[in-house]
Task: inverse folding
């Protein structure tokens, strides 16, 4: 992960919700399409926990297609022939934006000296990026999962910066179960002796074992029980009979191991700690006096909420909760629950209805 | 875990589903109540993954009450004034029955040389114990979760050994999602350098970190989202504000850490590997030619199935699947889905309706 990616340094220190300030913040970002002369066609796409700025471009480390290529591009639902799409790596992450792996002013990596950040801090950095780019008002802000939290946070805290707010498979607060799964992941990383209080950057081994376990646990929550059964059932992996051993006998085991180990090649364990913490801290109502509707008071943006019926990580009830708050705030909001077998991950997968909803809303 | 517990050595080697044989098998067990002169009042209670023979007696390592004291005892739903209750530690476990921590014939612990076992192997050992005790026919076999799998396996493979079969919050096969969660736990244990291919018994440190993470991940699956929200929500642990650090800010984090670390004091990591493997291998239909009804063909036992509406580990649909198979086999079966907020763990918790169902069925 020593590669550098196109980025920009914010000209001013970034104030954080913790009360600290982060100086010399670098934001790595990619753009797609052309900014119109009147600068009114910008769409900010916000990425999920382990996502990045390569929304519609091959990932430079894995060579895999961008994570939302089917959604963003020329003639795609978010059409780069008409829109100027900006996608930036969130602070705390590891694809070029300032995070725990970055050098602190003293010349050593921040590691666990990096301040604990919030979703609002991530968005504050994104807004600062928009300022640097001279983009006063977004045509739309769009995000799925943690990206949806950022879209909500932007709408709530910088209400004049986006005309349209599209939130897919997300929530306005992390539930006890959400926190619990993240805590398992963090404990898996911190239990790995290679983690060594986070000071592994100058050493040979990163806590890849712990990070892989964290990813495996999280990955289960991204899929539905039904989707797992359809995809794998109890089918065996490259064998006719159980081995009576501890190899990956079942396809689902093999798949999870592959997901876990592949992930460690592109992601930093400390970033995983910081970003999951930010998500767990997220409670948009709490930030606004305890009533979610107050977060959106006076907003003039149009909102669109999308959930999936098999998403048990951020179930439809969470989207509905947001819709009720937006209604109470008198906001313009549309809401659709889509049927899809793949659980939370559905927002990243082929789904024609989702495409139509996004295309229709973003225009 | 060097304590010894009352146990009996099987007089014959135990054949295993893997084709191997286990010699000198020791079964640790506890009994409650008195065996009737005609030996017809025995009730075999089968324990869950991390359970043991101390169903109605304080746990000798933790001092905590037996895991089903509210269900088993004088005047309780399984009434030891009338019934002779037998509860044995399954093979592969670590409370006195032969398992990976036991000495192999060469005088060193089996560790990972212990054969991979199945649920049917566990039951075969239990049936051998009944033989040794001179109990030809059980008044009832009873089990929740993995205990229910054993009860089903006994009914299917030794159909004359039990008059009544009570299966609570269980399944006839492990789903892809069930396997996936167990695989995360196993990978967490195996990723712990202290595991060292399972040869940690003669060393100072056991893979407690990995085992704790495994337990934490599993523990989430035992509880419902609703139960977690009711019990913890987003409440903070002994503080008024978030710490902006990685301590257990939230009560649910603190609770999980406590569950994880407490577990390592009473359980062996290798046993966790072997028992989860046995559960993942469990597919009662597959054992009987692929049709679950065939597993119960000609049975004369009476069955009772109980599920909980918030159990997402072994949801009601799994119990219903078993009931349909029993119907197809012409068996006598009753079935009830109970309402309870606590998910899978409900079978261990206070539940008056469950008490009535158990009392009525076991008589």
Result:
């Amino acid at each position: 992960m020593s590669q550098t990616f196109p980025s920009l340094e914010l000209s001013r220190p970034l104030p954080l919700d913790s009360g600290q300030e982060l100086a010399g913040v670098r934001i790595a970002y990619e753009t797609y399409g052309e900014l119109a002369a009147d600068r009114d066609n910008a769409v900010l796409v916000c990425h999920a926990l382990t996502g990045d700025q390569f929304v519609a471009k091959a990932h430079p480390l894995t060579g895999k297609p961008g994570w939302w290529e089917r959604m963003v591009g020329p003639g795609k639902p978010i059409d780069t022939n008409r829109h100027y799409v900006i996608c930036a790596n969130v602070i705390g992450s590891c694809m070029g934006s300032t995070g725990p792996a970055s050098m602190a002013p003293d010349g050593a990596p921040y590691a666990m000296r990096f301040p604990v950040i919030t979703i609002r801090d991530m968005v504050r950095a994104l807004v600062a990026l928009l300022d640097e780019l001279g983009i006063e008002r977004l045509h739309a802000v769009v995000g799925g999962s943690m990206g949806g939290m950022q879209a909500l946070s932007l709408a709530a805290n910088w209400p004049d910066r986006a005309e349209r707010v599209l939130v897919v498979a997300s929530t306005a607060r992390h539930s006890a179960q959400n926190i619990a799964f993240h805590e398992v992941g963090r404990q898996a990383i911190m239990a790995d002796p290679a983690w060594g209080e986070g000071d592994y950057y100058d050493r040979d081994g990163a806590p890849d074992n712990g990070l892989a376990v964290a990813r495996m646990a999280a990955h289960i929550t991204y899929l539905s029980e039904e989707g797992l059964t359809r995809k794998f059932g109890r089918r065996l992996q490259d064998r006719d009979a159980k081995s009576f051993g501890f190899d990956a006998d079942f396809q689902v085991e093999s798949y999870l191991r592959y997901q876990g180990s592949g992930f460690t090649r592109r992601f930093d364990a400390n970033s995983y700690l910081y970003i999951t913490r930010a998500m767990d801290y997220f409670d948009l109502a709490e930030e606004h006096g305890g009533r979610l509707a107050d977060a959106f008071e006076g907003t003039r943006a149009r909102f669109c909420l999308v959930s999936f019926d098999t998403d048990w990580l951020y179930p439809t009830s969470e989207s509905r909760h947001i819709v009720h708050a937006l209604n109470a705030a008198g906001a313009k909001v549309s809401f659709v629950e889509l049927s899809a077998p793949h659980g939370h991950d559905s927002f990243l997968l082929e789904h024609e209805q989702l495409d139509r909803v996004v295309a229709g809303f973003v225009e």
Q: What stands out?
A: The CA atoms of residues 221 and 313 of chain B lie 6 Å apart. The radius of gyration of chain B is 20 Å.
